[in-house]
Structures are given as structure tokens and as C-alpha cells.
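Record pair follows.
FIRST:
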Amino acid sequence: MQLNRKAVEFNRLRKRLRIRKKIMGTPERPRLAVFRSSKNIYVQLVDDLHHKTLTGVSTLNPELRSELEKIEGKIGAAKLVGKKIAEKAKEMKIEQVVFDRGGYMYHGRVKAVAEAARASGLKF
């Protein structure tokens, strides 16, 4: 039995809301939010207390274009995005974050972002 796209998206949003009830970003320990589309991946550091996005990186950033051309596949691009968000966090003197997988399974591109951020020094 094949589920239609709307049902799958609705289930992901329900999971996302369940996760968001439990985790919250602060200025000292922001939330590392992941969103993935079919072609791109977006990562943001969010301070939920002040309702602000501190910084963000995606595969659409112009400064990543030259590096993305050398990388094959979406998982390689996700690793690069994870590395870049960790570098930006260190520039802002942020060492710890709360990981928000956005209702997606911790698998594939979402896992690649998390592992690359950890490898670059962020603590979850």
C-alpha cells in the first residue's frame, strides 16, 4: 500500500510538533533545526526564547557553490552544510546545541549533517 504525499507530510508535521514540545533553544544552547527538501538541505541555529534565527546555512548559499561543485551527491552536500554551520557557531562562541531533526528520520542527509557538525566541534 502506497501512502500519498499529503499523508506523509502530515505525519512528519505531527512528529515535528511532538519533538518541538520537548526541545527548546536558548541563547547559550540554541536549537539546530534541519529542513530538507528533495534537492537542498537547510540548517539554522534558533533561539526560541527571543524567537530569533541566529544563523543559517543551506546548499543554496553562494559562498558554498564552489565547494558544492566538487562534491557528488546530496549526502556529501549535507556533510558540508553541517561543517559550515559548526564553523559559524564557533565564530558566535556557541559550543553546545540542541538537535532538532524536524520530524525526519535520523538517517541519510539528516544524520550526515549531525555527524559533520559533531566532528567539527559542536556538542549535542
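SECOND:
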Amino acid sequence: MKRPSRRLSVAVTILASIGILTGSVAASEAVDRAATGGGHFLFSGFLDVQFGFSAVAKADGSAQGSFHQSYTLNGLQTSYWGTVTCLSVDTATSRAWIGGVVTKVESDNPAARLVGEEVWFRVVDNGQGQDAPDRSTVFGFTPLFETSAAYCAARPWPADDARTWLVTAGNIQVR
């Protein structure tokens, strides 16, 4: 059976992320900030991570959305899905910090994290076209931060985009 092309996979991921976001927030709910994205990034220069996310911060301070990351390491496939519980955005730098709870795990790896754990990641939208590629991180888990909310509130961003990885296919939008 022929595998779908990487470009098709990225397009489906991006459309699914936008569809999730659109379907999860009613038009009557005031959206204060948003971050969406999908595609692939290269973790530590060797691990291809497929990702997708949609997150909105509403005017009342709550957040909602969903996220996904999937990769194969040492022949073991791992996929995580989750629900967004917090989003912080810095519009001046086009950076976003997203946190939530893992709702589904599919993995061949017995050491994979568990459903119900809090997780977080950060992204930067560097524009489109001739601009530098967008960047993302893999998920962080406790004990680095006690909760996803603590992560979103702290908004850590190491100098020179340390520990963020180039998006090799796809796009991130922060607004």
C-alpha cells in the first residue's frame, strides 16, 4: 500500500487543527489570543516529530483547544493527544506557551507517559516566506513545573531559542 505523501500529511494536520479550533469555540465566545499549527519539526537534529495544535485564550482567562505529537524512536512509535488548559501569548515576539492534559496515548514504548499527566510546550511564529522557520518544542512534563498553568504563567524562553526546534514542514500562527 502506498503511503500518503509528507505534504499531504502536513496539510491534513493543519486542516484538522483549524477544524478543531473552529468547532470548539462558539462564535459568541470572545477569543483574546490564539495559536495554531501543524507539520513536522526535527528534535535535536535527528528525530522527526509530527505535531498539530489549536489553542485559544478567551477574554475570561480560560483556554481551550487540543494538541498532538507523534514520533518513532528506536523503532518504537509514540503518539500523544491532549486538551489545552492554558495559553499565554506574547504578540510582540510571536511566542506562545501552551499547556494541557494528556487525554490519549498510543505507544509501543513501555516508558511512555500516561493519560492524565499535565504537559506543556512552546512555539514561535517567525512569519512566512523568506523569514526564519517557525520553531516548537517537544512536550515537557512534571517535575519541571508543578502544573501546566504554572508553565503558562512563567512563560520561560531561553536565550537564542534554545531547546526549540525548526519546523521542517508546516506552519505555526500566533496571534
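COMMENT: Residues 6-24 form the longest helix (19 residues).
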